[in-house]
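Suppose a colleague, Dr. K., hands you the sequence of a protein chain of 111 amino acids and asks what its three-dimensional shape might be. Before reaching for any lab equipment, you can write down a predicted structure in token form. Begin with the sequence itself:
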Amino acid sequence: MNLTISGHHLEVTPAIRDYVSGKLDRVKRHFDHVIKVTVIMQVEKLVHKVEATLHVKGHDFHARSEDGNMYAAIDLLADKLDRQIVRHKEKSSDVHQDGGGLKHRPSESPA
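The predicted structure, expressed as tokens, is then:
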């Protein structure tokens, strides 16, 4: 997983970098095929904003969160990405477990 973290109007410290990396490991635990993650953090007045783009094969996920605390905003962002990944994984596994597409289902006889 290629992780890029950048900050607008703030310095990205090693502590913040480790915190973001730890939170995004939870996303990787659900879905192993994460290719690239880009995280942008910014501060505007008293609002801390974090947005991330997560690239997997065939799909991109984007989430944005804001809070008064940077760590809380990162937590919200990780929760949003986690929900998106789990939903995507469930959709892809449901299609494959249901026996294929419509042409592979047995036809119902009219009653």
